[in-house]
Automatic annotation (TrEMBL):
CDD domains registered for this protein in UniProt: SufS_like (cd06453)
Species for this entry: Serinicoccus hydrothermalis
Keyword Transferase: yes
Organism classification: Bacteria, Bacillati, Actinomycetota, Actinomycetes, Micrococcales
Catalytic reactions of this protein: (sulfur carrier)-H + L-cysteine = (sulfur carrier)-SH + L-alanine
Protein name (Swiss-Prot/TrEMBL): Cysteine desulfurase
């Protein structure tokens, strides 16, 4: 879903109450017995009982090293791990052979980025399809394009690749209202080999149009550049199968488990089969090999080539349970719920003239998060006031320093939503926020 328009009704209050009952942590209190209002799902989501149970069941009933051993437990563990891969593939509308398990989204982006610097090694692309091999070759005169709204995980790896290969890093700017400056796409040229960008800004919630005819994707396709998408913030809220569909113009994307109701320690890299088959490995060792001799080794076909060592099997099983939970709820309904929360949050903040919201004004241009500043009060102080009332938000630069510099603020406070967030929690957040002017002696 590259559009911001929901296609279904949000869950009812009764359904949301039922959903919240599935998340044990949401029932706890904080700060002297205050009910927890968790508005930090953009940093990490809470986990439903089915995820906790799936991970626990793996350890209690099937725990063994995956893809090793011929005994029954090893077979069961391997089956569970590969079944999790199939679940991820269904969630993405992709083939299981295109799904690589990683530690998190950051590792997935590094895996991709390092493929370009590793491709420069002698013999690294021997046997690779000529077209894909050419697209992986990066050197002086070539360019990588990112955007000014990237999380550091989709910026620093590309900075490093450019430093290692001699390529040049360029970027698409951000407008004053937090949108990509699609009127200035001259940075994408015949020299561009990679365009890497976020689907949804982790700070502003800006939803970038990544349809095949969108300005950025169309410009990248026109010059044959690989398009890499950070879907960490969109995967918990949107149906993203249109990004992996044939003809989408997207070549690879990543998302992370801990933001999609799953455990920490597991993420996903999806990439076109031809790209994975051409990519040199990122990590080497056991499980990713084909033949090993003292003189050298050959590597297994993807996805095994990129899953060296004993994989995070229990976490993958937990992730699959989290993705099934989202799918069974209905991602169109999840998105509609998010839009309802977004609209209400923007409304209550608009009623407080001492709050300045960052990013797009329209609800349909946002997903999952609202960042704001209170001029004259540091975001950390705002966050502390909220925390004293039991409201958990994120403060700081949110691993996006360049974006904050572009918006001319040192940091921000961010409220972000999950499938379990309620309108009443948004009201509690607004009520707690009203303590800020009183505490800091603001007038006006």
């Amino acid at each position: 879903m590259t559009s911001g328009r929901p296609t279904a009704a949000p869950p009812s209050e009764v359904e949301i109450a039922r959903i919240r009952a599935d998340f044990p942590l949401l029932g706890r209190t904080v700060r002297g017995g205050r009910p927890l209002v968790y508005l930090d799902s953009g940093a990490t989501s809470q986990k439903p009982s089915v995820v906790l149970d799936a991970e626990r069941d793996f350890y209690e009933s099937h725990n063994a090293a995956v893809h090793r051993g011929a005994h029954q437990l090893a077979e069961e563990a391997t089956d569970a791990f590969e079944a999790a891969r199939e679940t991820v593939a269904r969630f993405l509308g992709a083939d299981p052979g295109e799904v690589v398990f990683t530690k998190n989204g950051t590792e997935g982006l590094n895996l991709l980025a390092y493929a370009f610097s590793n491709a420069a090694a002698p013999g690294a692309l021997d046997g690779a399809d000529a077209e894909w091999a050419q697209r992986l070759r990066l050197g002086p005169g070539d360019e990588v394009v990112v955007t000014e709204m990237e999380h550091h995980a989709n910026l620093v790896p590309w900075q490093e690749v450019c430093r290692r290969t001699g390529a040049t890093l360029r970027w698409i700017g951000v407008t004053d209202d937090g949108e990509l400056d699609v009127e200035a796409l001259e940075v994408i040229t015949e020299r561009t080999k990679v365009v890497a960008l976020t689907h949804v800004s982790n700070v502003l919630g800006t939803l970038n149009d990544l349809g095949p005819d969108s300005p950025v994707v169309a410009a990248a396709r026109a010059v044959g550049a690989l398009v890499v998408v950070d879907a960490c913030q969109s995967a918990p809220h949107l149906d993203i199968t249109d990004l992996t569909a044939e003809g989408s113009g997207i070549d690879a994307l990543v998302f992370t488990g801990h933001k999609t109701l799953g455990p920490s320690g597991v993420g996903v890299l999806w990439a076109r089969r031809g790209l994975l088959e051409a990519m040199p490995p990122f990590l080497t060792g056991g499980s990713m090999i084909e033949v090993v001799r003292m003189e050298g080794s050959t590597y297994a076909a993807p996805p095994a080539r990129f899953e060296a060592g004993v994989p995070m099997a229990a976490q993958a099983v937990g992730l699959a349970a989290g993705l099934d939970y989202l799918t069974e709820t209905g991602l169109d309904r999840v998105h509609a719920h998010d839009q309802q929360l977004m609209g209400h949050t923007l409304d209550v903040l608009a009623d407080r003239p001492w709050v300045r919201v960052l990013g797009p004004e329209r609800t349909s241009r946002r997903v999952g998060a609202v960042a704001f500043v209170v001029d004259g009060v540091h975001p950390h102080d705002v966050g502390q006031v909220l925390d004293d009332s039991g409201v958990a938000v994120r403060t700081g630069h949110h691993c996006a320093w360049p974006l904050h510099r572009r918006l001319r603020v040192p940091a921000s406070t961010r409220a972000s939503f999950g499938i379990y967030t309620t309108l009443e929690e948004v009201d509690a957040f607004a009520e707690a926020l009203d303590r800020v002017p009183e505490i800091f002696g603001m007038t006006g």
